[in-house]
Amino acid sequence: MIDDLGIKDAFASITGQAMLKALLVIVIASLVTVAIQKVLPRIAHKLGGRPRLYLLASVPLLRLVIILATVMIVVPILVEPSFQNMVAIFGALALALGFAFKDYANSLIAGIVTLYEMPYRPGDWIEVDGQYGEVRAINTRAAEIVTPDDTVVIIPHNKLWNSLIANGNDGTDNLMCVADFHLEANHDVGKVRDLLRDIAFTSPRTKTWHPVSVIVFNKPWGMHYRLKAYPFNPREQFQFISELTARGSAELARQGVKFVSVPVAVD
Amino acid sequence: MKDNANENTIDPCLPGGLMPADQWTLPETSVRRSLKDAIRHALMQLQAGVSQAEESFENMDQLPELSTAQQRRLAPEPDYSHQALAIACALECARSEGSLSREVICLVAPPFSGLQQALAHFSEPFRSDNRENSVDALRVISPPDTLLLDDQAAREWWDNQDLSRPWVIPELADFWLRCLSGLALVKELFRRIANGDAGAGIVGSSSWCWQYWGHYIENAHMSPWTTAPMNSERLGVWFSHLAAGGSKSSITAKMTDNGLYVLPLVEPEEVPSGKDSNEHKESNKRKYSTFLRDLSATSRGNPGVALAIWQRSLRARPDEDARLDDADQKSQAQNLNADCWVVPLNRLSLPLMPQSKESVTGFVLHGLLLHNGLDAPSLESVTGVSAHELSMVLSRLKRAELVAFDQACQCWRVTAIGYPTARRHLQSWGFPVDQF
């Protein structure tokens, strides 16, 4: 079968020197990739703001460029780059991947699509299959996210085909946070809305140039308020929500507005 | 106004005059300079973890700095009463032209522009020999002792203010604190202005405070006015005016590296009366440095920041030091061409941001700029930073010369020389910054 595909002919010209050359190119490419993966995120974390996000997003893209460049350099070193040889090698590769590493290949292709469509980038806050966290790295096969509890979750790229991916900030540093307040009925709704808006505006973490809004729902058990605002740093989202909740609760209590005191099922 | 209409009659106290805030533009700079600044800023952020500079300002040349007396004579602090008169005349002029018709005028300017100090002089009647106009004194409204009021108390406080005759608020930032019970006074003021219940007045505001309230009060549309940005020409006019100190003497300043002229400015085309045509030709042959253009870009057209950097950049030659000191002791009215030397901007080290937790440092600097200076307890309440951590951050920022304690009002303020660094870092950390 190998003869039929012309693989034997294609690899007939490989010499020891060519192998060494190819190995050297692969080692150099690997070192450059590792360096990029280590150095760029460190620089990005020092810069902060938008430059941080741009620099983080460039890491997987640069890695893809290096991989493609390596393949383009290594293949002509090993085999004569004729049409027949190329068809033979890539045909065999496709066959092997198709049979043996179907899921792996699926993830690799999804990884390439990820770099093109960018449903998530390093620095984004995403939720996939109930797992929420910050994208730390986009590797060839899978993405790594770090949850708020400092747990690393590996998400294969092929989730892209059939899972819902929620992205909180989508490549920017604007991430909306929501603080919920479940209050008993019979209070001045307008006053409470104004008060909650002031709570957000007086937080030093709030991006005041983005909208601050207070939404209220009438529920059978009382009133459900949602205070929505943007923190200046997405990484501070949990401190931000905690601060809004704590200060809002204290002020509502001072105003005599009571929280619902029985367990309720909230949809 | 003056900016567009009559550039030839530049008032040296307020070069460029007043203009609507939405027409304000950043002074132009070269692409080379912008790129250099951006790269320098990025490198400074990267180096923050490597080196911990304690010294904020470093003299990187061998020339002696000016003595305090020399500095007071060559680059003194401005007389804000003159600036107040210039502002009053500019407002009067805008009213007569019909470009300003509101009862309550909002004047917004970045920190260190001198607007607050100038508006504080509106409590005195202006009269000047050089000007046709004279302006009546306005009632200065000062903030109450405590700013933590509820809506009812704020209404009562404003009810007790006499708004029936023209009034002025030199600095709106003194009327609020960024905490839940610290907003009532400004909310009530804006409500009265919007309803037309505030009479005729002037509200002066720091650009940072204005930016906050612009977001808080949606659809306010107060159409604020501002002072024109200090471009290189205006800076030259202003520095010459400050050095002259009311006399007709002129200052000659040259660069230390290449001897190019910074001041006096190039003469206009027509030969001025009383000047020899040879002298005029000679002045036009001078080669000028780009220092003032670079300075206007570095300071973002902010006069107070530009003056602080200008004061730091002036040098005297050792042999001229004694001569200048002698001159100081003589009468200031004497017509003396006081030469001084100017260090290039790239040889001046402006304050660096110390390495620390971004968010806490940012909260402190942002809080100080929003309120135009605060005492430690108020700063603690608006930033949510504990007293212990706050004192450490303030002491680090003080060592870096980014903040200073103002003994007069017992509060902490961002320094003029540290303002460009503070603003740039706040912007890159994602904090809301002013438009100027």
UniProtKB/TrEMBL annotation, chain A:
Presence of the UniProt keyword Secreted in the record: no
SUPFAM superfamilies: Sm-like ribonucleoproteins
Pfam families from the UniProt entry: MS_channel_2nd (PF00924)
Transmembrane segments: 20-41, 53-77, 83-101
Protein name (database record): Mechanosensitive ion channel MscS domain-containing protein
Keyword annotations from UniProtKB, A to Z: Membrane, Transmembrane, Transmembrane helix
Positions of the Mechanosensitive ion channel MscS domain: 103-167
GO cellular component: membrane
Record localization: Membrane
A GO MF label: mechanosensitive monoatomic ion channel activity
Protein's organism: marine sediment metagenome
